[in-house]
Design a protein that fits this description.
The chain is α/β, with parallel strands linked by helices. Helix content is 38%, strand content 23%. The structure holds nicotinamide-adenine-dinucleotide.
Amino acid sequence: MSIEAKNIIDGEFIEGSTGEKRERCNPATGELVGSFIASTSEDVEDAIYSARKAFEDSPWATDTKLRVRVLREMSEAILHNLEHLSKIQTSENGKILQDSRRELTSAADLFDYYSGLVRSVTGRTHMPDNNTMSFVIREPIGVVGIIAPWNAPMVLLARSLAPALAAGNTVVIKPASYTPVSIFEFLKHILEDTKHIPKGVINLVIGSGETVGAALVKHKEVDFISFTGSTNAGAIVMQEASVNIKRLSLELGGKTPNIILEDADIESAVQGAIRGSMLGSAGQICFAGTRVLIHNKIYEEVKDQIVDIISKLKIGNGMDEGVDVGPVVSKGQLKNVMNYISEGKKVAKLLTGGKHLNKNEHSKGYFIEPTIFGDVPPESKIAQEEIFGPVISLIRCRNTVEMANIANNTKFGLSAAIWTKKIGDALRLARKIKAGIVWINTYGKMYSEAETGTYKQSGIGGTLRGIEALNTFSEIKNILINIE
Ligand code: NAD
């Protein structure tokens, strides 16, 4: 089945203005998944005009009951199409099917949660003196541009889209160039099953970051940019958005420390280290626990168990039951990751993996063996940079103080995990770590209702979860009345 991914503007599925098409193939098999268009800045202009018109002229921004109903319908539409959408996502970005299903379930939950919050966009009232009444209200910002990555495309789009819509904004979405088909199908099914959404509230423009993404960021009729992607691209977006003081939120890269203290339950910590390395997505997850910091006293035991389990994992097409590790997303990504593995071999011990698999059932895809390096120097490139592949660095540590220092010593501050039986020690360490979420004796769980933050170069500009995300996607206005 090959799908033609089109733009969605003012409720219509349309071709881009140039008619130029590209193909997207499955990174596990090389089979065609679909085609997509390369839009221009004129297409972006049309989409922004459609979103602006829907914001100004439709009841969307002001009718809260309509938004409750639509967000609920969107959640149901995702659940109704969950199996189809999971398969499309796996065929386009390669992650194992059970991870796609889990992400789609979380996406449906985000819309469900924000449908319940639509009527909680509230302000405050003051009477600063006898003759004055003051109302602080929250209003939708206007047209929101959402720029999304490919590694978890549907749930990460939902994470921005659900609160942006709940707060009353209209949107123009730009998907990543590796997952245009997934996002087209996701939005097409949502729009087809969502009877009450006014035309133009959700628009999609497919194309490159340099053309479509940059046009959205610079356009004066786009009031807010919600960007999820790499720290490098985020820095460019921030710079370009400054031209018209555009509001923005950036969710960027990470290099998560997964910290195993000397008294940890070893079996759970080992399982947590394996789960945390997100190998179903070949490690291509922003919060993957790629630095495992292990106390010296248990280092050998933990290392041996992690290596033993990871070296036996099944690598293959994410569509097949029983596969644990999918391919990386592209030839370019394969090359990047293999370069990091070569760097790693120069500074640390290769404990397992390290090879590009390209024979037999792996011959048509971009498969890399899960790779573990031991005794990795914390300052080395593989322990500092985001590899975005199935590569894990084990770092030997002497005590908790050293663990906290190493954990904090990268430019990122997205997430962290701690494994210990002493909850007091875990809480003290959690306070020291500069990360927007810290898991204790668990890994990777996130809830729609629980805000997460970002420290340092992992992001800026407001959370995309919980009730606080309504503040991210709304403006404050103070209205004062003289009641003399
Ligand atoms: P990327 O930065 O290459 O691209 C992200 C999106 O930005 C894509 O849609 C791309 O086309 C667009 N883009 C690129 N350059 C642009 C520009 N100059 N102007 C406007 N748009 C531009 O990232 P990616 O490779 O798609 O995703 C992987 C990265 O995303 C990793 O660094 C990962 O950690 C990060 N990420 C972060 C989170 C988070 O929640 N913090 C979640 C997922 C991924």
